[in-house]
Amino acid sequence: MPVTVLVGAQWGDEGKGKIIDFLAEESDFVVRYQGGNNAGHTVKIGGEKYVLHLVPSGILHERPVCVIGNGVVVDPAAFLEEVSALELRGVRIDGRLLVSDRAHLIFPYHRALDEAAEAARGSDGKLGTTRRGIGPAYSDKAARHGLRAGDMLDPDFPQRLRQKVEEANRLLKALGRDGLDAGLLAEQGRELAARMAPFITDTISLLHEALAGGRRVLLEGAQGTLLDIDFGTYPYVTSSNATAGGACTGTGIPPASIDRVIGVVKAYTTRVGEGPFPTELKDSTGRMLGETGQEFGATTGRPRRCGWFDAVVARYAAMVNGIDRWAVTKLDVLDSIETIRIATAYRCGGRTHTAMPASVRLLEIAEPIYEEMPGWRQPTSGARRWQDLPQRARAYISRICELTGVKVGMVSVGPAREASFKTDM
Ligand code: IMP
């Protein structure tokens, strides 16, 4: 049962795109299972940089068929734009990219509602969303009045879209916002539907046929465990299940078919948007990590908050995802640090927590308990094998493995495709 799930084990931006790109070479299918164009997966090939938001990173390899699963929310305009941009750069899309007929759709009113909700929360209460309409689209899905990709194939789709825009306009007006032009959006919806039609199909049957034929499938998560709607730092989370369970509900592949889960962790921690972040560094070390690691959101360009590696977070992610191996990314960013810290527990509310507290109030006041390790203070970016890493860098990764109970399977030491290597996978 050659199905691999790849999940982010922190707050997103762990470098999943790069690891997916690496693993895609040995996959027949690469499937996105949740999120939408809030994600930004960056892949560097040769001198070229690609940032993918909706299209699975597997598209950059010749072989795999790429699938956008039923758990994803698809903004058709953003999707088609991304496809055109890839085609312009010579990436072959034809017949290699499919969208589930059960995937829910995002339209401009979802983005307008996302904006309006953020503004209504005010500067103290805002979540710092990407404003791509993700929350409102998943809300429509849960409230059972969303539109799905398969609906685009029905002749009455423009009328249904028009009705949805009119409903959304009532909400927008109640929030003090201008309504959108329902007639225009319905017309645009007709054009989008015609262009989307060749991509839309029953991806569930397709994937089951693939499994029956022994094909290798890689299920790619977006965001990360701490942004998961159930397991993350609620309410500072995204609106879907970024964790391994979401790979089943977001693709139709059953749990028993999954044979390994790879967790991607940065060698330190970052977070973009609002919400608690116990190991955050607001000092020169934090700034150095941000600059050296080029920590700017791939979707919004916002600077990412940076901090030390948090073993409480990683242990929790290992537990809820059933992670078999770590892929540790951006190790090279720590090359110049004299003493590196790892959080092993938090002190908050007069107690020591080794498990991840549910309460964001507790997390906001949590004081990390750190252990320190000597830095290796030499470049790692040329390493291509485990043995090439300085002894202290190996000791650092080994300590992360000990603290989390998960072995390392891959390490990445730079942005280029060739700067990732397997250790024991
Ligand atoms: P939303 O997903 O746009 O609703 O945003 C909710 C939270 O998730 C915000 O804090 C975003 O910054 C964060 N978020 C969403 N997508 C990503 C991502 O791909 N990487 C990192 N953070 C993300």
Any overview of this molecule?
This protein folds into 3 domains: about 5-100 and about 200-260, Adenylosuccinate Synthetase, Chain A, domain 1 (3-Layer(aba) Sandwich); about 105-195, Adenylosuccinate Synthetase, subunit A, domain 2; about 265-420, Adenylosuccinate Synthetase, subunit A, domain 3 (Adenylosuccinate Synthetase, Chain A, domain 3, Alpha-Beta Complex). The radius of gyration is 21 Å and the shape is globular. It has 12 helices and 20 strands. The longest helix is centred in the first third of the chain and has 18 residues, at about 110-125. Helix 3 (about 110-125) crosses helix 4, helix 3 (about 110-125) packs parallel to helix 5 and helix 5 crosses helix 6 (about 180-195). The strands form 5 sheets. A 10-stranded mixed sheet has the order 9-7-5-2-10-1-11-15-19-20, sandwiched between helices. Strands 14, 16, 17 and 18 form a 4-stranded mixed sheet that branches. A two-stranded antiparallel ribbon has the order 3-4. The chain has helices spanning about 15-25, 75-90, 110-125, 135-145, 155-175, 180-195, 205-210, 245-250, 285-290, 310-320, 360-365, 390-405; strands spanning about 5-10, 30, 40-45, 50, 65-70, 75, 95-100, 105, 200, 215-220, 260-265, 270, 305, 310, 325-330, 340-350, 350-355, 365-375, 405-410, 420. The site of inosinic acid has 20 residues, from helix 4.
